[in-house]
Design a protein that fits this description.
With about 425 residues, this protein is of the alpha+beta class. It is about 25% helix and about 40% strand. The longest helix is centred in the C-terminal third of the chain and has 32 residues.
Length: about 425
Amino acid sequence: MMKFPIIKFYTYCFWIIYAISFCIWLAIIAYLWLGFKLIEGIKWVFFNQKILAIIMIKSIKNIFLNPQKIGILLILLFTVIILLAIFPVNHNFEGQLIVQEMNFTYVGNNSNKLFLNSIRGINQISVRGTQTLTLTGKFASKTYPQLNKLNKLTIELPNEKSNLSISPANPQETSQIEMELRLQPNTTVKGLNYNSYDDKKHKVKVNYLSLSLQTEKTAANLLQMQLGDQFLKLQLEDYRLPNLKLPTNSNNSDSELEVIFKPDIQELRLPLPQTTDLLIDLPEPTTREYSQWFRGDLAVKNVQFYQIEKTGVDVKDDLFNSTILAGQIRMAGQEHKIEKNQFLITEEPGVKLLRNIQIHPESPQGLEVRIAGETKRLQIGLDARFPVVTTQATLLDKFLARDTIIALISFSAASFSYLLYWLLEQWTKSNQKS
C-alpha cells in the first residue's frame, strides 16, 4: 500500500489560519454576548452555582429575545456542521484485491502464527539461506559414493545463497510431502507471489508460490515438513557436509549435489533465521483445497501492493509499479473499483488486517486478498502522484449516511449565507439610525 503526502503546504496554512480565526471569533462572541468572562465563569461554577444559574438564565433569555444574537448562534452552529463535514478523520475501510505480488509485516501478538496451512502433495520445496539440518535414513549419491554407507547426514548451508531443494525421487509418483509455515511477530514477508505457467518440455502445468522472510535475530520462523515414506531427491547448492572429509574446494561447492534419500523420520522442523527465501512447487489447484492453504486473520503493517524497480545508482531513478490486477475498496458508504496497474494509496495507519489470502488460479492469476484497516483518505490512480479518485471520511460519516450529509451541508451553507447577509443588513440599519 503506497503512502504519499497528499495535502500541499498551502492547504495546511489555509486551514490553520481558518481555524485560528474561527477560535478568535468564538472567543469574542462568547465574551461580548454571554456577558461574563471565562475565568469568572469558572469561579462561579465552583463557588457560586446559584449566581451562575441566574446569569446563565438571563443571558439565554437575553439572547432569545434578540434576533441578531439568535442569528449569530445559528451561524456558529452551521459553521460547526460545515467544519465537521470537511475535516477528515480516521475511518474504517475494507476491500478485496487480486494482486500479483505483495509485501507486509506481521505485527500480531501470537508467536508461531500459522501462515501456510498444511499444503499437501508438494512437488518441490526450495529453502534458500543460512541453515543447518541433520537427516537420518538411507542415502545414495553418484558424486560421493561414501554417502551410501551413512545413515545420518548433517548438511550446512553457510550463506544466504545456499539452497536446499526437496522433491520426490520419482516425479511420476504422487508426492507425500506436506508443509506448514509459522511466523514470529515483526516478521516481514516480501515478494509473496503466485505464478502459473505451462511447462511445454514436460507437458505439465507448474504452479509456484514464492516468498522471502526477514525476521529478528532473537526469533526464528518455523517450517515444518512431513516427508512421508517415499524416496526423495535432495539438491544442494553452496553446501558443506561435515560428515565427509572432503577437500576444501569440494566442501563448499558452487556446483549442485544430488542425493537420493529414504527418510526414517516423518517430520522435519527447520527454524528459519533472519533472511530465508522459499520457493514452493504447488500441486494442481483444481484438485486441492487451495482456499485453505493460507491462514488469514493476520495483524499487519507496512502493506505494499507495488514493486520498486531499482537501478542501484540513484534512488531518484527508482520506479514504482503497481501489482494490483483488480479489486474493489469501500469506505464511508462509498465503493470504488480498482483497475489493473492502479495504485491504492492510504494514509497511516492504512491496512491493519489481512482477513484472508488465497491463490486465484483463474484469470487474472494472482493472490486474492481481503483487507481491512483505517485511514483518513483513500486514493486510486495509475500514478500515485496524480490520483483520479479520492475518498475521505469525516466525523459525520460515522453517524449519518452520505446522502444525508450532502443535504445537511447544502442546507447549512445556504442558511449560513442568508444569515450572514441578514446580519450585515441589520448592522447597517442600526448604524444608520445611530
